């Protein structure tokens, strides 16, 4: 004969309460896991802020004076200004269009052109001087036009304009306004604070007629 264990109403109530609480705990745990997964998915799919611009490299412009050395054939060494048509004239190969190229690009181009002419086609290109106008405005001590005689970076242009107005200048978001072919302008935002603090070693080189605008810090007062 199977015995039947009788439980008091109080015992039955305690058992029922434990089962309810256990069920609620399991449901809460599932909700937390699902919420966590939702947060993770949201974090993964959130867009990552991109830098406003890459550092601008030095390019050759009209009026630049180039020194071109041929270590294997020093008799071909030459120092020459880039003409208004963007060309220079070299021995053996004649005229070469150079405007818009970097010195490294020109070295590679000339090495290729001379590869069948010389035993050593090694070429070194140096921009000796450059003359053009740059405009610096905003939170600097001496805003106005500067005319450097050599390739110049955005930070160097600010220094030529007397340096930052330290009480007002937003050095993390300096804007370079550049004219583009066909009309219009293109803006580049440069973090010069990183350069000053040694966190970045990439100079942003300027081009003729660039405008360097140093914005003021935002303040509630």
Could you characterize what this model shows?
This protein has helices at residues 9-45, 103-114, 154-160, 192-196; strands at 65-69, 78-81, 87-90, 94-97, 124-129, 134-138, 144-146, 174-179, 185-190, 211-214. With 221 residues, it is an alpha+beta fold. Among the domains are: 65-129, wza like domain (wza like fold, 2-Layer Sandwich); 134-214, Outer membrane lipoprotein wza domain like (Outer membrane lipoprotein wza fold like, Roll). The protein has a 5-stranded mixed β-sheet, with helices on one face. A 3-stranded antiparallel β-sheet has the order 2-1-5, with helices on one face. Strands 3-4 form a two-stranded antiparallel ribbon. β1 and β2 form a beta hairpin.
Condensed summary:
The chain is α+β, with helices and mostly antiparallel strands and 221 residues long.
SSE layout:
Layout: H1 9-45, E1 65-69, E2 78-81, E3 87-90, E4 94-97, H2 103-114, E5 124-129, E6 134-138, E7 144-146, H3 154-160, E8 174-179, E9 185-190, H4 192-196, E10 211-214
Parallel strand pairs: 6-10
Antiparallel strand pairs: 1-2, 1-5, 3-4, 6-7, 8-9, 8-10
Tag the structure with descriptive keywords:
Outer membrane lipoprotein wza fold like; wza like fold; about 220 residues; 10 strands; three-stranded antiparallel sheet
The count of DSSP E runs of length 2 or more, i.e. the number of strands, is 10
Major sheet attributes = 5 strands, mixed
Distance between the termini: 90 Å
What's the helix count?
Answer: 4
The overall pLDDT average reads: 79
Radius of gyration: 34 Å
Element string (H = helix, E = strand): HEEEEHEEEHEEHE
Percent strand equals 15-25%
Supply the helix-strand structural class.
Answer: alpha+beta
Q: What's the CATH first level of one domain?
A: Alpha Beta
Tell me the strand order in the biggest sheet.
Answer: 7-6-10-8-9
Give the low-confidence spans.
1-6, 24-53
Share of residues in helices: 25-40%
CATH architecture of one domain: Roll
Principal-axis shape equals elongated
């Amino acid at each position: 004969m199977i015995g039947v264990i009788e439980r008091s109403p109080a015992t039955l109530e305690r058992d029922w309460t434990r089962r309810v609480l256990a069920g609620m705990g399991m449901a809460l745990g599932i909700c937390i896991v699902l919420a966590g997964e939702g947060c993770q998915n949201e974090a993964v799919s959130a867009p990552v802020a991109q830098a406003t611009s890459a550092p601008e490299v030095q390019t050759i412009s009209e009026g630049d004076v180039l020194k071109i050395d041929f270590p294997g054939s020093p008799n071909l060494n030459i120092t020459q200004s880039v003409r208004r048509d963007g060309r220079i004239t070299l021995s053996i190969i004649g005229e070469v269009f150079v405007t818009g190229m970097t010195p490294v690009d020109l070295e590679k181009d000339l090495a290729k052109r001379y590869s069948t002419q010389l035993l050593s086609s090694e070429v070194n290109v140096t921009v000796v001087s450059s003359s053009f106008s740059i405009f610096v405005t905003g939170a600097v001590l001496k805003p106005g036009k500067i005319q450097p005689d050599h390739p110049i970076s955005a930070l160097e242009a600010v220094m030529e304009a007397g340096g930052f107005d330290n009480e007002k200048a937003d050095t993390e978001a300096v804007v370079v306004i550049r004219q583009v072919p066909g009309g219009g302008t293109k803006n580049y935002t440069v973090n010069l604070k990183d350069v000053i603090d040694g966190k970045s070693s990439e100079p942003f080189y300027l081009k003729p007629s660039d405008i360097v605008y140093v914005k003021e810090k935002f303040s509630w007062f």
